[in-house]
Amino acid sequence: MLAWFPVTAPPGPLAFRAAVPVWKKELERRGIPVLTRGYVRTLDVVDGRLLGEVGFRIKPRRRVPPGSRRQEMAQTLFATLECSARDDQAAHRVFRFLAELGFRPDGLHLERYLPGVADRDLLMLGVQRLRPVVANGEGGSSPMASE
């Protein structure tokens, strides 16, 4: 389960970085153990400001603080790529690479800020395999041709 908090920030690299420890401490202050360092999502740009969410994985069936929202998640396979904060083409390269391997984006698109690193983050894309892997295990990760 994820607990999400709304955030806004001026546009720029790693725009929501300052909000991550603030909301983590708020969960811990309320006695809710945090299971991850935190995730961020940019949802929109309104009047020149980024609108997004900062989220944390917490144990199922926990109450979330007022003003936050909970999201139940099924198990998800993520493709990840460490990116420069100023690399606005990273997601496009990942999408092309995933398509070549027989995957497509499916569901969540998250970022995780790396501790102690001010100029890079981890892009995380939920993915789903489009084609099954060869049954006998030969061919490594190459997908079978579509029928």
Biggest beta-sheet profile: 4 strands, antiparallel
Q: Which stretches of 5+ consecutive residues score pLDDT under 50?
A: 138-147
Average pLDDT rating: 83
Q: Compute the separation of the termini in Å.
A: 37 Å
Tell me the strand percentage band. 35-45%
Percent of residues in helices comes to 10-25%
Number of strands: 7
Output the radius of gyration. Answer: 18 Å
Q: Helical stretch count?
A: 2
Which H/E pattern describes the elements? EHEEEEHEE
Instruction: Identify the overall geometry.
Output: globular
Question: Strand order of the main beta sheet, please?
Answer: 2-3-1-4
Sheet/helix structural class: mainly beta
Tell me what you see in this structure.
This protein has 147 residues and is mainly beta. Helices cover 15% and strands 39% of the residues. It has two helices and seven strands; from the N terminus they run βαββββαββ. The chain has helices at residues 19-29, 90-100, and strands at 2-9, 39-46, 49-57, 69-71, 77-84, 103-113, 120-129. Strands 2-3-1-4 form a four-stranded antiparallel beta sheet. A three-stranded antiparallel beta sheet has the order 5-7-6. The termini are far apart. Mean pLDDT is 83; it is low at 138-147.
